[in-house]
Amino acid sequence: MTAPVNIAVLTTPAIRIAPRLFWLLHTGGWTGAFLLSYLSALAHGKPAGYWTVSLSAYGTGFVATLGLRWVLQRVWSLPPGRLVTAMVLPVLAASGLMSVMFLVALVDWCGDDCAPSSAIGYAAYMTTYIYVVMTWVGLYVGIKYYRQLQDQTRQALAANAMAHQAQLKMLRYQLNPHFLFNTLNAISTLILDRDTSTANRVVQGLSAFLRHSLDNDPMQRVTLKQELDALNLYLGIEKTRFAERLQIETTIEPDCYSALLPSLLLQPLVENAIKYAVARKVEGGKLRIGARRVGDTLVLTVADNGPGCPALEGGKLPPGNGVGLRNTRERLRVLYGEASGFDVRNRAEGGIEVTLRLPFESAGAPRE
Is-above-0.70 flag for pTM? Predict the structure, then answer.
């Protein structure tokens, strides 16, 4: 089932790296760089006190890249090419500041003899720190783009889920006006015939059915027993219209009463059968409703003994009409995808049989 969607997700502001995550990565990264530099210096014979030199460079980098972060936040909306161009000078400035602070600390630690003897030496130090700063910028941009992609994916999934919810609700509620029209006509006829007690009973049945329809969200599932109880409310109303012309036969395996399915899934199929198989025959007709479990699949059937439909030859739904069949098939497709099945065929003995297949999931409800 599709989970409810928080609409606020769709209005997320500009993507920002969470402050806690940023400080964790920022502090950890620069601490690691400092330790790597210091241990490398020890491995090359530097004394233990050399840590002050390494700390001066990487401590400066820690502070300087905070300025780069501020710049990146200001230019983030630029196209990639312009973003790179805008960051050239800030990266050079941060790298230059790191190299200057390193050289100042180095000269202070071991005297003028440690200072580079030429401009090329100074450039070499600066080039080293350019790579360090560019690595920081690359990681920052990469993480920021990754989080932005995650949020965009989340928004797309939320929008898709909302579209599915709207589609499912439309598919279910589209069927109610036709049933309501027929029922109101039946009530009108009963009133004209002065059969007020029957009219009152139909109004009460209609009220109970509509209350059930409105109280049950089409995004939620119900047990087959609850579905059959709602279907009995509907059939009670139709029984008033057709009396003995409408015969109903049910064959439900005990295990299936607790199976979960979309609410009011069977009602449009039964309504369709009454419309085409019962209402059009003077002698009426019979409906057969069945449910059985086949492995991990719940198989539901609705069959009638009407005239059938020649347009079903080849397994295709009839053009134009058949809204109930199409909507039921679409609801199964949206909710279960390839795990569902929908078949409609003409029966050899006459009439139409609709078969629904969906994953068997039990709510643990008591058996009938």
Answer: no
